[in-house]
Structures are given as structure tokens and as C-alpha cells.
Input
Amino acid sequence: MQTKLSDTKEANGLTIKKAAQIVQVSTVTIRNWVKTGYLSQTEKNLISRESLDNFLLTVAGKDKLNSRANKRLKDNHNHQELTEKIQSLVQKFSGENIGIEYEKLLSNSYRNKEGIYYTPIRVIKDMFSEISFKKDLKFLDPSCGSGNFIIEAIKSGISPENVYGYDVDENAVIITRERIKKEFGIETANIKVENFLQEVIKLEKENMYFDLIFTNPPWGKKFDKSDKEKFAEIYGCGKSIDTTSLFMGACFSILKQNGILGFLMQEAFFNITTFEDIRKQAVKKQIIRFVDYGKTFKGLITKARAIILKNSQPNPKTPIKCCTDNITYNRTLESFKNNPKTIFNFWIKDSESKIIDHLYSVNHITLQNKANWALGIVTGNNHKYCINTQKEGHIPIYKGSDITKAGLKQPSTYISKDFSKFQQVAPLEMYQSAEKLIYKFISSDLCFFYDNQQRYILNSANLLIPVDIDISAKQLTSLLNSEIMNWLFKKLFSTHKVLRSDLELLPIYKDYFLFDKDFTETKFLEYLQIRKTEKGSYEITG
Output
């Protein structure tokens, strides 16, 4: 049942932070809804309870404002009804099919909130493939779900009494216990309904440590940011406060010396700035293996990737197995530590890693603190506000798909000059700058366009204005559009989004223009002492 906001105790309204927590969006989104007139303020930083009640009941879910705003209103499920179906599931199905059927009963909103994606047995078998399982080793799955990791651990040789698991979903815990009982004839008290992040504190006090910890942690589980920051401090995660990072940091706390940790995670862990601090913790261990399992989970665009490591001092000479596209490469630990932000780009060969090292050894600057950045206009509802023919009071606006390296396509979209209707608009002087670079946001390629006609862009495109970089905006555009820069971008980040944080890591070779004011790819490669091979890769010539 939906909780009425009027039941809360704030006398004069809700704080912006409180409103954001209730609706499960950021405070920036709440402020944007105030700006666009959906919410009313009673006084500074206080939101009218009545306006938020009305918004949730009559607007969210009907107007396409923000997908996160509607999650609270999406389908939910009855936990009591689910509990009543558990025994039937266990009796009717066997093995991982029990978990598959249970997942089907969960609402999308609940799965999203809790970060629930149960791991296929084939993936678990592969993660276990090079691990030595012995009867007396202690095994833990801190986010056990329906028990796939736990069942496979017992089948691999771990005694059932030495297998432990936690989950916040009571029904999932019941399923795991019932599966153990059904398959091995043993009732266990070691599978518990607990918040693992809180439970670790107790485990440490009890000197409870584990030889093997394997899990698929909750991906991006939604809970209060202050709690995330608290756990990040406890477990040494730094600024990495996603639940994946918190679970890894907590596991490091209770992993025995020489114990093995295996995590199946979203691809963002391996290359996004958000996870930098926890990656720096991981490289202090002996990394054994990286694996890319591709798009493993139905309904998820992101790939599932695994890291398997040993809790011991790393040996720089020990090769790290990197498995991707059914091919295995060996990489050195240093090849990852040398990357900006300690990116785990295990999908490339060691020879390609050396090219990256070389590129960063050439004198360069970066765009960090050397550019002003802005997002394209967020209308809040493109279907409502964007039209495909120009009429009075409307101006052309460019989408990411309009930006090509050959130039800018003719405008096909128009919006009102009255920007007050829109959800988010950068300061107008950013769009109206005498010179700026606009670029595709959703793209695996770098695609920039030099704009000196004060064009406006939608949020499928972003912009930057260089500051004090000693080269022109046109020259910067040429560098960023170059083939070698695109190669570097893909090999480092392997992403379908062009993020500011990634662009700020790329080397900008401004000194090239001291030798040649006009850009050509051939001369640029000569300057970098690199040549392109017949296979489309690169090799060092200097």
C-alpha cells in the first residue's frame, strides 16, 4: 500500500533530501521537478507535502519524466503469497530451475531495488573450474539468493556444515535451505536472513573467517546514501559506495590469508571511475583470473564479468589469466596498475597494453580542469516538447545522432524557445559560447563536432568548452576524432557511453601542433612514433 506523505511528521513540508529518499531519486531531480512546476516549495529547501502527494498519484507513471521517479509506483509483489508458493516450487522444480521460477514471481521494481540477478550454473562452474575444493574449507556466499553458488560448492566437495550464506530475502533463504535438504538430506542453520554488510561486523568480532567466498553481489542496490558512506568507511572502500564495492570490501575483511574470492559483477566495475578506489584495493591482492561472460542476464544490457583473486601479496611476475570471447590472454599486474584510474581492461592483449603505456609516456595534458562541461537539454518528455517541423517560437535542436565526423546533419527536431518548461537546462551561455565542441553521448566511438554557431543540443549530446589548453577548439576536435584516440578510448573503457570522467583521462597531445599546424592522421602517428598494422592495430616504431 502506498504510504501517504502527509503521514510524515514535517510540519512545514518535506526537506528536499527527505523527498528524494521517499521517491528514490536524487536531490537534483527533486530540484528539477520544482523548477518545472511539478512540485511546490513552502519555503527554502522545503517541498509541499500536498504537491508531492499529488505528483505521485496523478503525474508519475503517466508523464514520462524520469524512469526512476516511477519505480516506486511500479508493480510490486506480495511477500506472504510468495512464501506460500515456496514449497510448491521446491517440490515441482529441481536445481537452478527453482531459482529461475522464483525470479519470475518477483516484480521488476523489487529486483531492481535489491539488485537481484541469479547466477546461471554454467557461469558458477566456470568460476569454480580452477579452484581446489576441500571438505574442511569454509565457504561463504554473502548474497546467496536461491543458492546456486552454495549447491555447487557442496557438489564440488565442501562439507554442508562448512557452507554459509546470507540474504535479505527471506523467501530466497528458505529456497536455499530446502534445496540443501532435498539434494543432500541435511538441514542447516548456516543459511540466514541477514544484512551481510551489517553481519560482517559481528563475524569479525567472533573471529569468523572464510577460505572461499564466491558470490554475485547485489548490483546497484538502492538504499540510503549515508548508510553506503558509513559502510564504505568501515570497509575501506573510499569513494566506491556502490553495493558491489561495499560487498567486496566487506568480504576482504573476513577472507582468510591465502583465501580465494570470486565476484561476478556488472562491467562498470572494471572501468568506471566510481569503482576506482575498490579496484585499487583489489590490485593489492594476487589476481588470478578475469572472465567476460557476455550478456548473461535476461533484460540487462550490461555484460557480466568476474574477478577471482587470492588474499596474498601479489607477485608481479605471476601472469593474470584474462578470458574474453573464448580466448585467454596473459597480462601482468603492472599493466593494470599503470592504467589511469587502475582500469581493469582485461579484454585487450598484453601487446596492446604496451601501446597504451607508450601513448601515456608521450608528453601530454588532459582535459581535467581544462574545460567547462555541460549536458544537452533534458526536456523531461521529448514526445511532448519536440516537434519535427519548424514553427513560430521554436528553434532547431541537435541530437547525438545528428553529429558525425563528416559534419553535422541538417536539423530535424525543434523545441520551444521557452526553456522554463524543460526539466534540466545548462546555463545558456554554455550553448551560446563563441566556440564549443559537441559530441555524441551514447556511442562506443568518439564523435565530436566543432560548433561556432551557438547551436542547442538535446541530452543525447553533450558539450565542452576548452580552457587554456594552448590549442584551438578546432585542433582539439581533430585530436579527439582521430583513429588512434578512438582506438585508445575503446581499449581503455570499452563502453557505449562517452563519459566526461573518461574524456578527462585521455592524453591531449598539444605539442603536436608545434610541428604541424594542420592535423593529419599519418603525421600524427609519426609524431607519436606509432604505425598502424595491416590488421588494424598499432605497433611502436620508436
About this structure: The chain has three domains: 5-71, 79-347, 371-540.
